Amino acid sequence: MTSSSRPVEGTMIVQRRAVTAVLAAAALLLTAGCSSDDEGGSSAGGDGTASSDTTSAAPSSGTTEEAAPAKGSAEVVRTVAENLKSPWGLAPLPDGTLLVSSRDEATITRVDPKTGKQTELGEVPGVSPAGEGGLMGLALSPDYASDHMIYAYFTSASDNRIVRMLYEEGKPSGEQLGAPDTIFRGIPKGFVHNGGRIAFGPDKMLYAGTGESGEEGLSQDKESLGGKILRLTPEGEPAPGNPFPDSPVYSYGHRNVQGLAWDSKQRLFAAEFGQDTWDELNAIKPGDNYGWPEAEGKSDDPAFHNPIAQWTTDEASPSGIAYAEGSIWMAGLRGERLWRIPLKGTEAAAEPQAFLEGDYGRLRTVAPADGDKLWLVTSSTDGRGSPEDSDDRILEVRVS
C-alpha cells in the first residue's frame, strides 16, 4: 500500500523495556490543568509550575564505553541571522548555507551564515497554521546532491503530512520551490501536540516524531500514527526492518516528539514533552513502548522504556536536539536554556548542564555545524514568547 492511499491512521504495536537508571526524584507542586507542551498549555496554553531539580539516569556499571566529561561548556560565538518570524525547522545545505522554515508564514528561507543575507525560496502550499501547527521540520534528501529535494513536515487543513519539493535555485526569489509531492499523510492533527521533527538517519531512512494531537489514547493505540516515532523510506513507505510488519511505526507511547538525533554509534535519541511533571530524553529502541499516558518520566513498570534523563516542565519543554562532543544538546522552550546531556553509551554519564539560561528567550532547534559548533534557533515570535528587537535569531554556539 502506498502512503498516499494509506488511511488516516496506520498500524502499530509495541512493547517496552526499562532502562536501568537512578533518578533523583523530588516533590512537585502543580497548578491545575497545565502541560509543558510547546510550551506551557494543554489546549489552553496555561502555565504550570513544578519544583525539584533536574534528574537523570546514572550510567550502568555494565557499559564499557568511555563517558563524556561530566562538565562541558557552551558559548555563543555570534548571531548569524535576525528578524526571523516563527522559525522552526533548520536544514544545513552542502555549501554551508542554511534553510529555515517559518511555522506561521509557511515559507522556507535560505540564510547565508557568513553575511546573514536571507533569501526566501517560496511559500509551501497547503499549510494551515494554527496553535502549534504549521510548517515545521525540514530535512534534505539523502541524495540531495543529485535530486535537490527538500522534505517538510506540516499541518494541513485535515492532518499532519510529509511532502518533498524540488529546490530550483536558479529561479527568482520566492519561486524556487517546486510543487509539493505528498509522500505520507494521515498523522493526526490538533491545536497542540503535532510533533513535527523529521530527519534522515544514518540508514538513509526518514524518521518523523509525531504528537498525539491532544488525545492521550492515541499514543498507545496500535491503529494510530499519533504519539509515535515513524520510520519511512524516502518515498514514504514503511521502512524495511521496522519492528512491525508493513507498519511505519518505530516506537510508540510518546506524547509529543520534537527532537531526533543520532550519536557517533548511530544510536537514536529523542526529546519529548511531558505534561505536568516530567519532560524526557529517551534512547530509542525499535518496537519499544515509552509509556505515555500511563507513565510520564521514570516508571517502575517494566513494560515501559524509561528516559535516560528527565526535567520538570518549567526547566525544559524540549524541542530540537543534536549530538556533538559526546553529548546530546537539547533546546528548551519554556525553560529558555540549552541543555547538555553527557553520554556513556545509551545512558546519561552525569547530571545534565544548563547553558544560556534566559539569555536568548525560548530555544526551538539545535543542529550540528562545523567542528565543535552548533546552530541554535530561537523561538520568541511563536505566540508564547516575549520577542525583543531582532527576534527571532539563528546563533552560532561553540560547545565542548
From TrEMBL:
SUPFAM superfamilies: Soluble quinoprotein glucose dehydrogenase. Residues 49-67 have a biased composition (Low complexity). Residues 84-384 form the Glucose/Sorbosone dehydrogenase domain. PROSITE patterns: PROKAR_LIPOPROTEIN. Residues 34-74, 376-400 are annotated as: Disordered. InterPro entries: 6-blade_b-propeller_TolB-like (IPR011042), Glc/Sorbosone_DH (IPR012938), Quinoprot_gluc/sorb_DH_b-prop (IPR011041). Pfam families: GSDH. It comes from the Bacteria. This is Oxidoreductase. It comes from Streptomyces davaonensis (strain DSM 101723 / JCM 4913 / KCC S-0913 / 768).
